[in-house]
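Q: What structure does this chain adopt?
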Amino acid sequence: MQQGRVVVVTGASGGIGRAAARAFGERGNRVALLARGEKGLKAAAEEVERAGGEALTVPVDMADHAAVDAAADQVEGAFGPIDVWVNDAFTGVFARFTDIEPEEFRRVTAVTYLGYVNGTRTALKRMLPRDRGAIVQVGSALAYRGIPLQSAYCGAKHAIQGFTEALRCELLNDKSNVHVTMVQMPGVNTPQFDWVLSRLPRRAQPVPPIYQPEIPARAIVYAADHPRRREYWVGGSTVATLIANKFAPGLLDRYLARSGVKSQQTKQPRDPHQPANLWVPADDSEGEDFGAHGRFDRKAKARSPQLWASQHHGLLGALAVAAATGLGALARNR
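A:
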């Protein structure tokens, strides 16, 4: 039913964006891939086409609104009206807040937060006059819960959450058929831990448990198909984190103060020569293609029962009611 849609994926050259672009390609969609890294974009486009979709690569810095708007014109000129816009592009710095320079913090905010604002504004400019379309914001458990060593990234994700909530209210007030939803992610096995600027003594890693990027990709595709829902949570760790933060945020502060620094680093020392994509993409013409997966394949989970449950909560609720009704009838008969 969704075959042939025009889908834009930002941050499509690696990680979750790369896996999501491939998943849309498997649907036979026309997928526009936006990112800075030319080698990563080229390889991602080949994967989309092998999967059965059409691909268009558009090198662009999401922090530059004029460039993003021009990229959307290029997409619609080649593929037609945009049906789905997925915001996923980001960058970050692994360091204590006091070790991050002001211009570095500003750059993370410009790409990770304002990049979503620019993408959303560009999508709405085209979707609102047509009164149709879906915008998927790739979020994180860190949109609700800050953790040490990622102050710039956490701040940007919190900002995206507030921005999206405000926008959703405006669209509801206007009774618009353009919908915006968020997909909150857990720790994922992506290349970011080898290309994000790091000042940690040891190699960075996702907070365990770690999930393969195909799980978030499936969640993004599902959210694009069902954008009326406010948000989706991916992974049991995301659910546990958000619930704990809601009911015991102070206790979680103390827990993360004890464990958060260690849990985000492996035992291996950090390579002082590893690339940093804050200012220049690590997968540009001088770099290499990093793909969708990071170096944690042996540790990463390939399934998430919680995601299935999240996507079928109506069915599970109905089954629970039916079971309770049956037990109640059995008790009365006895």
